[in-house]
Design a protein that fits this description.
seven-stranded mixed β-sheet, six-stranded parallel β-sheet
Length: 379
């Protein structure tokens, strides 16, 4: 089958790889109809992880069940399904508590597994024509038959639940104001989710024009940090007090304001100042224990200069960690089905699989309006 294969920093190629097969009675294979490029894929693409050449990318996957293992009970050939990026067993201590992003079974020695991602287990990615899904009864979410809302449903694999998760981590409640740092796909989903939860005012901080325009289109207040201190801008909109809650949708590759260099802790420190005393921060943005491309020796080891003194002084709460997609995807699916949510506004390009190398390059450079790319292997 054809698949997107990592060749080295800033290079992927569409190549022939081995077809997936049933390896366990609980497996299914899925013919992939939609698979998205994620911002976290760019960390590997840029060589900012320990990913080795040869890995097949793709952890946001949707398709049609092709073959089922003899132990699969709830799925049949022809079922349309979307899979969380988390690979989870469904029965370990963390899974039964709802923390499926931290499964203790699927990746021995590490809490959590995922498709096509470095250090997240042996699960081949789905930027390909087919994918194997383990523990399929647990990991597959059934969708309505046909092709309706394909570009909405594909976002259930990761970024829609992850944006919603940022709100859960920050405990966003109706009537509150929310500052979202980062206007990429996850940031826009966090802003959108805040509105679905009844936030009174949502700020989106970025400097990319297309992202800020998208934020404004959904009713958020765009904050261009290239034109002034975002903390001061947010306080101007909140009578000098700051937002009630804050969400970091950027992570460790944050850019220093007014400079063309990385400053990994800048978003965290800006959020500490942007949120009022006794507020809360949600941090779904990715931080890693090791970053070979970090700007200094401390950040290369995942140690950042965060203003813990101010955080403590203001009595702020902080929630962190990757999304437990299974906790949210069924409810969000039903909101899409009923027309209450249309997250596909964030999708800028839908392309055949063969255009993946160009799409990665343009998405990485934030050019030509590339905000979220969905690849269609069967196109």
């Amino acid at each position: 089958m054809r698949a997107v294969v990592y060749k080295g920093p800033f290079e992927v190629a569409v190549e022939q790889v081995e077809d997936p097969r049933i390896q366990h009675p609980n497996d299914v294979t899925v013919r992939v109809t939609s698979t998205a490029i994620c911002g976290s894929d760019l960390h590997m693409y840029e060589g900012r992880t320990a990913a080795e050449p040869g890995i097949v990318f793709g952890h946001e996957n949707l398709g049609v069940v092709e073959e089922t293992g003899e132990g699969v009970k709830t799925l049949s050939r022809g079922d349309r399904v979307v899979m969380p990026f988390n690979v989870a067993c469904g029965f370990c201590k963390n899974c039964t508590a709802g923390f499926t992003g931290f499964c203790l079974t699927v990746n021995p020695g590490f809490a959590g597994g995922a498709y096509g991602y470095v250090a997240m287990g042996p699960y081949v990615g789905g930027q390909a024509e087919y994918i194997r899904v383990p523990y399929a009864d647990f990991n597959c979410l059934k969708l309505p038959e046909g092709t309706d809302n394909e570009s909405d449903f594909i976002l259930l694999a990761d970024i829609f639940p992850t944006g919603y998760h940022g709100n859960e981590l920050a405990d966003v409640r109706p009537g509150e104001s929310v500052a979202v740092y980062g206007g990429g796909p996850v940031g826009l989903m966090a802003a959108y989710s805040a509105m679905l939860r009844g936030a009174s005012k949502v700020f989106v901080v970025d400097r990319v024009t297309e992202r800020l325009q998208k934020a404004e289109e959904i009713g958020a207040v765009p904050i261009d940090f290239s034109k002034g201190n975002p903390v001061e801008q947010i306080k101007e909109h909140t009578d000098g007090q700051g937002a009630d809650k804050g969400i970091d949708a950027v992570g460790y590759q944050a850019q220093a304001r007014g400079e063309d260099r990385e400053e990994p802790a800048t978003v965290l420190n800006s959020l500490v100042e942007s949120v009022r005393p006794t507020g809360a921060l949600g941090v779904p943005g990715l931080y890693v224990p090791r970053d070979p491309g970090g700007p200094d020796e401390h950040s290369k080891q995942g140690m950042l200069m965060v203003s813990i003194g101010r955080l403590f002084e203001k009595g702020l709460k902080v929630g962190t960690g990757q999304c437990n997609v299974k906790r949210y995807n069924r409810q969000l699916r039903d909101m899409i089905i009923e027309g209450r949510a249309r997250p596909s506004f964030v999708v800028s390009h839908e392309l055949p699989l063969d255009q993946a190398p160009s799409a990665y390059e343009k998405f990485d450079k934030r050019i030509e309006g590339y905000t979220k790319v969905v690849l269609h292997p069967q196109m």
